Amino acid sequence: MKDLLLFIGIFVLAGCQSARIHIVAPSFDKQQKQQLAQHFADQNLKVNFAQGVLAPSEFNEASITMSPTFADFKLLGLVKDALRSAGYYKVDELRFAQQQQFYYEGHIGVYLLLPKEQRLPLYVESEDCTPYRTLMLTPEGRWQLDDFVSKPLAGTWRRQGDRVVLTSDSGVDTHLHYERTTRITYRGERPAHVLKALPGTQGAFKCTFVAINMN
């Protein structure tokens, strides 16, 4: 009986959808999520915004992942209609995606990412600081600075054009300049992401942070 009630509960929650729709949109704020959910609601679709899911870096701006055996083309069409109404006209369909993404039976993953040229690396490391430190920037908008000596600093980050604004949990803002450039390595010249402290920056962020693409 318990299993039957659980099944009925899941069925009611899912409504007429043959699959649950999970949206991975790490750069979206609360208002953008509400607007996107409304586009899906206009197609009578319910969505869930997934937290803590790292999208593969090779994914393009808009992707739908699903089981290789997924065959509800009507539902797929409604998902695409919702995305088009939100401004996503080019959507990749991925029947198999690695790294435990949403491609298993009964689920659809909708990945909405920044254009590749606007994405920040997950980790950058100091180039000219003592002690050495690393800066982590999560897709969900959190950051953490470690120097492996003192207590880590943490907070939220947001992108403003060529600047990255880091707001500490205590409410202090730090502005870093972001650029795509190159660095010379043992494999020759390689693409690099650089975050550099603006003039007047004090404390732990008075550094240049770099992530070099060695692929």
Task: Please describe the topology of this protein.
Layout (H helix, E strand, L loop, with lengths): L1 H13 L5 E5 L5 H12 L5 E3 L12 E5 L6 H13 L6 E3 L12 E6 L10 E4 L7 E4 L4 E5 L6 E8 L2 E6 L4 E13 L2 E10 L10 E5 L3
Helix pairs in contact: 2-3
Mean pLDDT: 83
CATH architecture of the largest domain: 2-Layer Sandwich
Kindly name the structural category: alpha+beta
Q: How would you write the strand order of the largest sheet? A: 6-7-8-9-10-11-12-13
Shape: elongated
Percent helix: 10-25%
Give the distance, in angstroms, between the N- and C-terminal Cα atoms. Answer: 54 Å
CATH fold-level name of the largest domain: Alpha-Beta Plaits
Uncertain runs are 1-15
The CATH class name of the largest domain reads Alpha Beta
